[in-house]
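Dissemination and training. As part of the outreach component of the grant, students in the summer workshop were shown how a complex can be specified as a set of sequence lines and then modelled as a single object. The example used during the hands-on session is reproduced here so that future cohorts can follow it. Participants entered these lines:
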Amino acid sequence: MSHYDKLTSHYQTLSHFNHAQAMLGWDAAANMPSGGSEARSNAMAELSVHIHRLSTQPQLEDWFGNAEQEAFNTEQIATEQQASLREMKRQWQQATVVPEDLVQAQSIAGSKCEHAWRSQRQENDWTGFEKNWKEVVALSREEAKIRGAALGLTPYDAMLDKYEPGTTTASLNTLFTDVKTWLPELIETVLEKQKSESIILPSGTFSTATQKALGLEVMKLLKFDFDRGRLDQSVHPFCGGVPTDVRITTRYDEQDFVQALMGIVHETGHARYEQGLPTAFAGLPVGEARSMGIHESQSLFFEMQIGRSKAFISHLSRLSADAFSAHNDPVFAQDNLYKIYTQVEKGFIRVDADELTYPAHVIMRYEIERDLINGVIEHTDVPALWDEKMKAALGISTKDNVKNGCMQDIHWTDGAFGYFPSYTLGAMYAAQYKATMTQNIDFDSVIQSGDLSPIFQWLSDNIWSQASLHTTDELVKRATGETLNAAHFRKHLEGRYL
Amino acid sequence: MSHYDKLTSHYQTLSHFNHAQAMLGWDAAANMPSGGSEARSNAMAELSVHIHRLSTQPQLEDWFGNAEQEAFNTEQIATEQQASLREMKRQWQQATVVPEDLVQAQSIAGSKCEHAWRSQRQENDWTGFEKNWKEVVALSREEAKIRGAALGLTPYDAMLDKYEPGTTTASLNTLFTDVKTWLPELIETVLEKQKSESIILPSGTFSTATQKALGLEVMKLLKFDFDRGRLDQSVHPFCGGVPTDVRITTRYDEQDFVQALMGIVHETGHARYEQGLPTAFAGLPVGEARSMGIHESQSLFFEMQIGRSKAFISHLSRLSADAFSAHNDPVFAQDNLYKIYTQVEKGFIRVDADELTYPAHVIMRYEIERDLINGVIEHTDVPALWDEKMKAALGISTKDNVKNGCMQDIHWTDGAFGYFPSYTLGAMYAAQYKATMTQNIDFDSVIQSGDLSPIFQWLSDNIWSQASLHTTDELVKRATGETLNAAHFRKHLEGRYL
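and obtained this result:
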């Protein structure tokens, strides 16, 4: 057996334990009663230890060395095998580069900080939070330095690499600096324009059962493969499971159906990416989704490019009026639903933000975490910086309001630095795909027709089936003819909101 | 760390992988879409391999030897530790005694036989089945010989030991010979008595949602702990999960609610045993259920002793009439429901059999598999023997009808010999508990009152909390003052049916 084959077999074994971990995680969120949590945590921790052990087995270093030699000696080695080897090695390096005692220290500090944060946030308690967070930041900086040294990157670029391989501070600075030149003014203009619009908001009871039935109808329209996936409920919506059995979740508010419905559209985008990954590489790193940002590009393509188009909202209007037997209710009129789904508002909370203000939230987080990890600022500087950037971006202050400021998100509490940019990268990629797609596809007519296959075929050909065969830049260039270009995003936002 | 502590830690690690396996198995039956099955099978097979590897690690032999020495040297070693050591060693011996190549050969032959049986049974194809089954029987005989040699038991007793440690052919022969002296006549008498009774059978639509709501009400009455468990649906009802998160399932027939309802009562009995196991030994073999038969004694205590009592059926009458808004429908009258749930009928199929004829099915299977594994008969003798025994027990013939004869059950297709007696042992234990319990508890009044706590307290004190601290005989003797005595079972059946 060649070392390449040994590695392939090893990573397939790993994927079986990852399958178990994914399903236990989904079950914990979607099914598990409260009493089950201790035994589940123990089981999942044991699996993590085992997965880590398999991921860092000492013989892997030799196997990679020998496999690269084999590749070098074989003229005929397929491009796909080279990509597979590259991605296995990437995962191996990610797993081995950080010493185990640091990983453990981070896990303990992160759990402690996150746990305390749950009540500290309610109490607006920066002083209490800061004491725990100090350690989390210090350990993340240490991790970033170690990763940076191994990869030849700056500390923050090394953290970005975990979620967005190939993305750098330099490229993000360029993209986001551009956005900052036009976004604040665009927001003001749109707010002014929307002032005169009247919207009828849903109210009254929308039963969970009916909302779910409606969600399933919309998933059918989006060609979710129900032989290979399910829709369930959880407190925080997510897309989990494995490519042949994708588990998406949503949460229902019986006072208002619009959020759950669009949430389902979003998660269906994630799901179709997973369902569309190539079976030839099942269980191998090269067969996995390219990155967080590319994953988000699919959910946001579904949510923003398809879901919030007028054509799609005409389907939502019809299907929801049918579901709630409310054909004469003006809430469900296409125009009204479109206004609801494109209403812009300045707010403190990122997860509640609309399409237009969302990038402002992401960019300020990016700037803060970049400087924090690179040691340019200290963790105690964050609340004031947050306030300052929030005022510049959206004109609202978070002074003495950390619970709606820098303490609002869970990500930083356990050291997930480098993750936020993916959201806006995803939105930008989605706009760029749409711009390319419309050169050959009559986008709105296709959606209007109710058979969205041509759109999905494009995504399948260009994104889903490509998995991690190419770098992100290559993937996007092959799909759209250029690497990421924020101009498409601007054009999309201006086209929709002006 | 003592070797006893090392073993404890090792078995707790194992329990975490068993947790994963249990939940994946439940999910596969209750949730998984068809497309997920290949990846799930691979993941579960990988987990099985890993669990087997951990269960048979070479150092365990030394650890057990040293731990026994430690126990010998320590006067103060707790009885509970001795029991824990005994049960860990029992599981280790079970896992190591059969050579891996035999396990693998059995797995392949069993899968092949079971797979083909699914269509062969429909086609009444003994000739086809016999070709595959020959190998399964041969390998099971080999397994039985190896186990028997290691344990100093006859081959069939060694197979019994897998499910019912301590139970022997000698004890079963005594119990079942006794039953055979009175059961056939009792069945005839009861059938004659019931001839004149009129029963109104349910018909019409009983929606799955309402049946589930009714099932949940009944589970509440039975004090199922919903913080540590759930009710779901699957094709074959079962009780799965882990003690702090017990997953029971049922299947609903919209034409008739009575089977699903009593099925829920049965599975709730299994569940409460699991939920009542002592947390002090969580994750350790000594903290697990004592045996298949004792497990079945709980489900059958719930189903037969509680569930089919007139007092409990008065609750079922009220709750089901409420659920289906059918207070004037004579189907739901207490007397009628009682007649439905105690109707006796001779039939070919064990899983459809009533309380009274069920033991006849089990005893004939026992006699056949005992002689088959001990080499007294050959696998080709089974259809004729089946026909002969069926005629003796219930007066019906299965000649040229193997699909309703020896090919009706899945158990033998993949070599689960030694398992059938547990069902009737469970029914006998349950009758014996009831006989003891009624010395101090006014059984029917307690049920009638709607607060069944005194009954559950007895089960908790005597069975659930005792887990595997004692041998089965000790457990039953401590609970009832004597080892298993079929007289209680006879008295129960005569009391109910005569």
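Chain B touches chain A through 36 residues (CB under 8 Å). Students were then asked to discuss how this feature might be tested experimentally.
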